[in-house]
């Protein structure tokens, strides 16, 4: 008996919601530690891990993600964007099972590495998939759903961990970590209903399927719609140019491609070097430094994650009306200012506590900010830093990284971008807990300086990509392209190409071409 065909969803926003459950996995794993690392159950069971050991536990996710990012591109080119995400989910199930059953911090690290392998694939290929199915003028609002999903995952998992903190013994963190199975199962159930990327189908020679999927997404199935024809012509033109450019790693550096490789990798590196993850991962530590304890500290940290979602949601409404360059430049400067304030106040108004702050003492927290205005300022500007990050670099870096690659380099290129993100994430994950112990408040000054450097880098090297087709971005990075500071959002040539196709059809006065004929255009 023939099995019934699974219906395919072509509503782009619904497709994005399902696909970005991969981002929710990322968010779950980030905050699977945030609410737990300060609990007595975790501290007692793992013998109060501090410094390098806590750094290894925290950065294990990034270590696995580095490996996942390396294999993601070739895997995605071979299997397709959708199926590579489905494959990655298997490792999440295994990694979560290892974490739930862990007997020591070594097994916990192993489980987080396996989960990180999944995140390395999904964090690179979900934005690729979304960028390849979205219309040019809506691409930012589609890709930003990935960032929203990450933040929703962070918030949900944080409060699950907070709720589980009332459970006695190891069952506290085992229960919390076990809930990580849930978003993965929903993602695996939803993926078969999603269409394949039309650009990937074109890349592997399945032209008729590519045209039909493009038509279903862009024009309610009408393969003769001028928009479909114009976009298909662009895809074909770029594909032919890329075939002439040759294969292998040289295509990432030949004919100006090095500019795009540098932009895609560096924007992800700067997202980490801007230091927002110090707040996202360790706000519970900062709350303890500011004198907040118990439920007050936990709820204060949880509210920060809700603020993260609210302001990213606000940016979702305006992301395609706002230039990528301005978001990145002013976002980096705003974050740098917040880092300088937090570090300056901590340096001027804190007391060194060598035994650790808290009950039981946490060996990672060795300064106590004076109560009153200093403590309130630290918390306020920590919140403000997250607000600025949520409005700017959090969505902007992922969107920009997804937009800069060519069709032939997009899957592997985005893997390189994610690899850059995770390498720096790993390095900072190892650096941050020891830095809290050894240089205390100076860590914020370091990140403040890095934010100012990032703003300068964005201004000098990143052309504007907002409102342009993925194929038009080719011109922005070409050897004859404009200086980055002379580029503006919009001004897409696609509208003119659509009108040209429509005029051609009117002039021809012939019957609309069949699918096979469209394919030859």
From TrEMBL:
In terms of Pfam families, this protein maps to: Sugar_tr (PF00083)
Matching entries from Gene3D superfamilies are given as: MFS general substrate transporter like domains (1.20.1250.20)
SUPFAM superfamilies membership: MFS general substrate transporter
Keywords attached to this Swiss-Prot or TrEMBL record, sorted alphabetically, are: Glycoprotein, Membrane, Transmembrane, Transmembrane helix, Transport
Q: What are the GO MF terms of this UniProt record?
A: carbohydrate:proton symporter activity
Report the superkingdom from the record.
Answer: Eukaryota
Which membrane topology term applies here?
Answer: Multi-pass membrane protein
Domain Major facilitator superfamily (MFS) profile intervals: 15-466
The cross-references to InterPro entries, in alphabetical order and at most eight, read: MFS_dom, MFS_sugar_transport-like, MFS_Sugar_Transporters, MFS_trans_sf, Sugar/inositol_transpt, Sugar_transporter_CS
Per the record, its GO cellular-component terms are:
membrane
**Where are its TM segments located?**
12-38, 50-72, 84-101, 113-131, 143-163, 175-194, 261-284, 296-319, 326-348, 381-401, 413-433, 439-460
Q: Where in the cell is it found?
A: Membrane
- PANTHER family, A to Z: MAJOR FACILITATOR SUPERFAMILY (MFS) PROFILE DOMAIN-CONTAINING PROTEIN, PLASTIDIC GLUCOSE TRANSPORTER 4
Family that this chain belongs to: Belongs to the major facilitator superfamily. Sugar transporter (TC 2.A.1.1) family.
Record protein name field? Major facilitator superfamily (MFS) profile domain-containing protein
Please report the organism this UniProt entry assigns to the protein.
Answer: Thermothielavioides terrestris (strain ATCC 38088 / NRRL 8126) (Thielavia terrestris)
């Amino acid at each position: 008996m023939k099995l019934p065909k699974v219906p395919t969803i072509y509503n782009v926003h619904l497709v994005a919601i399902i696909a970005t459950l991969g981002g929710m996995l990322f968010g779950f794993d980030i905050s699977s530690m945030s609410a737990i690392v300060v609990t007595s159950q975790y501290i007692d069971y793992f013998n109060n891990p501090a410094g390098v050991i806590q750094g290894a536990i925290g950065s294990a996710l990034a270590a696995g993600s580095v490996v996942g990012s390396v294999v993601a591109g070739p895997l995605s080119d071979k299997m397709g964007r959708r199926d590579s995400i489905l494959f990655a989910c298997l490792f999440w199930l295994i990694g979560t099972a290892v974490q739930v059953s862990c007997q020591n911090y070594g097994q916990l690290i192993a489980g987080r590495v396996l989960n990180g392998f999944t995140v390395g694939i999904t964090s690179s290929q979900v934005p690729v998939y979304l960028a390849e199915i979205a219309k040019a003028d809506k691409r930012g609002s589609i890709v930003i759903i990935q960032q929203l999903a990450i933040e929703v995952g962070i918030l949900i998992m944080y409060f699950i961990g907070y709720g589980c903190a009332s459970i006695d013994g190891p069952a506290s963190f085992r229960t919390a970590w076990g809930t990580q199975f849930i978003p993965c199962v929903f993602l695996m159930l939803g993926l078969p209903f999603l269409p394949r990327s039309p650009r990937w189908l074109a890349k592997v020679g399945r032209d008729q399927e590519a045209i039909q999927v493009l038509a279903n997404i862009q024009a309610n199935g009408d393969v003769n719609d001028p928009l479909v024809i114009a976009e298909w012509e662009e895809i074909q033109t770029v594909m032919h140019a890329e075939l002439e450019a040759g294969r292998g790693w040289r295509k990432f550096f030949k004919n100006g491609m090095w500019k795009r490789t540098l932009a895609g990798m560096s924007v992800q590196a700067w997202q980490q070097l801007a230091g927002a993850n110090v707040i996202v991962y360790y706000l519970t530590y900062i709350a303890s430094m500011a004198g907040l304890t118990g439920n007050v500290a936990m709820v204060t940290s949880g509210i920060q994650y809700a603020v993260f979602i609210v302001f990213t949601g606000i940016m979702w409404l305006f992301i395609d009306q706002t230039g990528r360059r301005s978001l990145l430049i002013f976002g980096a400067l705003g974050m740098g200012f917040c880092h300088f304030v937090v570090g300056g106040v901590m340096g001027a108004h804190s007391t060194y506590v060598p035994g650790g702050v808290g009950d039981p003492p946490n060996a990672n927290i060795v300064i106590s900010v004076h109560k009153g205005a200093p403590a309130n300022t630290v918390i306020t500007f920590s919140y403000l830093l997250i607000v600025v990050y949520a409005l700017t670099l959090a969505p902007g870096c992922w969107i920009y990284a997804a937009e800069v690659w060519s069709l032939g380099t997009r899957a592997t290129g985005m893997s390189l971008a994610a690899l850059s993100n995770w390498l720096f994430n790993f390095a900072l994950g190892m650096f941050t807990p020891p830095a809290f112990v050894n240089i205390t408040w100076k860590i914020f000054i370091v990140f403040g300086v890095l934010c100012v450097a990032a703003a300068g880098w964005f201004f000098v090297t990143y052309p504007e990509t907002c409102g342009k087709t993925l194929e038009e971005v080719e011109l922005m990075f070409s050897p004859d392209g404009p200086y980055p500071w002379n580029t503006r959002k919009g001004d897409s040539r696609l509208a003119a190409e659509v009108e040209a196709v429509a005029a051609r059809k009117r002039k021809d006065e012939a019957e609309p071409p069949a699918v096979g004929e469209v394919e030859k255009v």
